[in-house]
Specification:
alpha+beta, seven-stranded mixed beta sheet, two-stranded antiparallel sheet
């Protein structure tokens, strides 16, 4: 053995409390293992382990960084202090391995592993008593106060679930959605928007303080807004809840800007056009919220044939999808500070039944949607729907088959894009039928209430209300599902 442990002290190179070593073959000075092995001498000999040096096993060490306690006449900042793990267990850590402020709710100070090193030299510090990083708390700043992970979860649950909160990228606080505002399609806390956003005196555009702004941007290109564009919604039709859809189309014979202008001229204030990075040379038609009855009776569907005649495609592509947003009012409203536990339970139970109908019948839903599950509409949350509903957790984020990350809406992303009126209406009718069928449904472990057979029987009995869904169901399950010019 050519390593020798000399004492505990401050490493002269990294100035951290360390077990100091020398290496006889290289005639080194006293340094910590990391500095002696990698930074200074590039020693290739295997790193010693803690058991080889009794001093490393008997000296009190920090549970966070695993380095030894150290104090002398000049410093006491590496003395070990009491802190806590996630489960409340007390441990000893350096002050720098302790979160600087206590939890707002439980008033405990917590340890962290932010100063724990990485690399082969760390094998010398690990032993049977080393605490794994997963036992240390995640620190959360919520509504202006710092909370440990356990108290954060309790706080979320007492305010309707984590899905009702938004992380503000500007101030790095997580705030309730009631206290957020939108800027360029992204949500920030209201204080940050009020303190940083102003209206341009020349053109009225909202500008974040410090950002570049050009009032003379080419108007021809602004017909297609950025992906994050999100104007205030305009509601059409009278009803308990509304829906909007996003239809992706690809341009072929004319430029996408001409196609977008064509669609905008027909749809007017009922929709706006956006860019989407998943498209090759296309745009996305995004409608404002309408009731199903308005879509069925008053919406100007001539836009689809106009786009088709000018060479645009949607169905006969591998890039285009159709996404339907249904307002949370369909399930009783949005969860807020004023929601009672009974209200929250009722809303979440309805959402869970709605999602189970879709996820439990993936094969049949995919048939009427026109495409199987993909990375943009994944069914991988099946079996994990309770945390998805209560906490907004999803394995694929907003690319799940049912996306719950939006504050005001739930998004169903399973449908293939189409320029056929009946296809789009069938998607809107499917979402409405699923909402209404599951509204007061009694589901037990033994009944078949959420089976596809029971659902199709319901649609058949309500075919006057859902004529396009009944049509597409009939076509999808009697014919092989092939792309056709009719669907495009």
């Amino acid at each position: 053995m050519t390593y020798a442990l000399t004492r505990i002290g401050l490493c002269p190179r990294c100035n951290q409390p360390e077990f100091l070593f020398v290496h006889s073959d290289s005639e080194t000075m006293e340094f910590c293992l990391r500095c002696i092995q990698h930074a200074l001498y590039q020693i290739e000999e295997p790193t010693p382990v803690a058991g080889e040096f009794p001093l490393m096993s008997t000296t009190p060490t920090c549970a966070g960084c695993l380095k030894p306690e150290y104090e002398d006449e000049n410093t006491s900042r590496f003395k070990l202090l009491d802190a806590h793990l996630t489960d409340g267990t007390k441990v000893k850590v350096h002050k720098i391995c302790m979160i600087s402020e206590s939890c707002e709710d439980c008033d405990k100070y917590y340890a962290h592993t932010g100063n724990r090193g990485h690399g082969t030299h760390m094998v010398a510090y690990h032993n049977e008593s080393t605490i794994p990083p997963m036992d240390f708390t995640d620190w959360n700043r919520i509504d202006g106060a710092s909370r440990c992970s356990e108290c954060a979860q309790e706080y979320y649950e007492s305010h309707g679930g984590e899905s009702n909160f938004t992380y503000c990228d500007n101030c790095e606080d997580t705030v309730h959605n009631d206290n957020t505002s939108t800027y360029c399609g992204s949500r920030y806390c209201t204080d940050c928007v009020q303190n940083n956003v102003y209206d341009c005196d020349e053109c009225g555009t909202e500008v974040w303080s410090g950002n570049d702004h050009d009032c003379e941007e080419d108007n021809r290109n602004t017909i297609i807004h950025s992906y994050g564009y999100k104007p205030d919604p305009i509601f059409f039709g009278t009803g308990t809840y509304h829906m909007g859809f996003e239809l992706e189309v690809e341009a072929r014979n004319i430029s996408r800007f001409e196609g977008a202008q064509m669609a905008q001229d027909i749809l007017g204030e009922h929709a706006y056009m956006k860019s989407d990075g998943s498209l090759n040379d296309g745009f996305e038609i995004v409608t404002h919220p309408h009731t199903l009855e308005y879509y069925q009776r008053q919406f100007d569907w001539s836009v689809l044939n106009k786009l088709k005649r000018n060479g645009h495609l949607s169905w006969n592509t591998d890039t285009c999808g159709l996404h339907v947003h249904v307002s949370r009012e369909a399930f009783g409203g949005r969860i807020s500070y004023t929601s009672t536990p009974r209200d929250i339970l009722h809303m979440q139970a309805h959402q869970l039944r709605f999602m189970k109908l879709i996820y439990d019948n993936e094969r049949q839903v995919s048939r009427i949607a026109g495409r199987a599950s993909n990375s943009y509409a994944s069914f991988s949350d099946r079996g994990r729907l309770v945390p998805k509903v209560k906490e907004g957790r999803s394995m694929h984020g907003h690319c799940a088959a049912v996306n719950v990350e939006n504050y005001a809406t739930i998004e169903i992303r399973v449908f293939k894009g189409s320029l056929r009126k009946e296809r789009i209406l069938s998607a809107l009718e499917f979402v409405t039928a699923s909402v209404e069928y599951t509204r007061d449904l009694k589901v037990t472990g033994t009944n078949t209430a959420l089976s596809w057979l029971r659902f199709t029987a319901y649609v058949s009995s309500e075919s006057a209300k859902y004529p396009n869904l009944a049509l597409i169901m009939s076509e999808s399950f009697t014919n092989e599902q092939n792309p056709t010019d009719n669907d495009n």
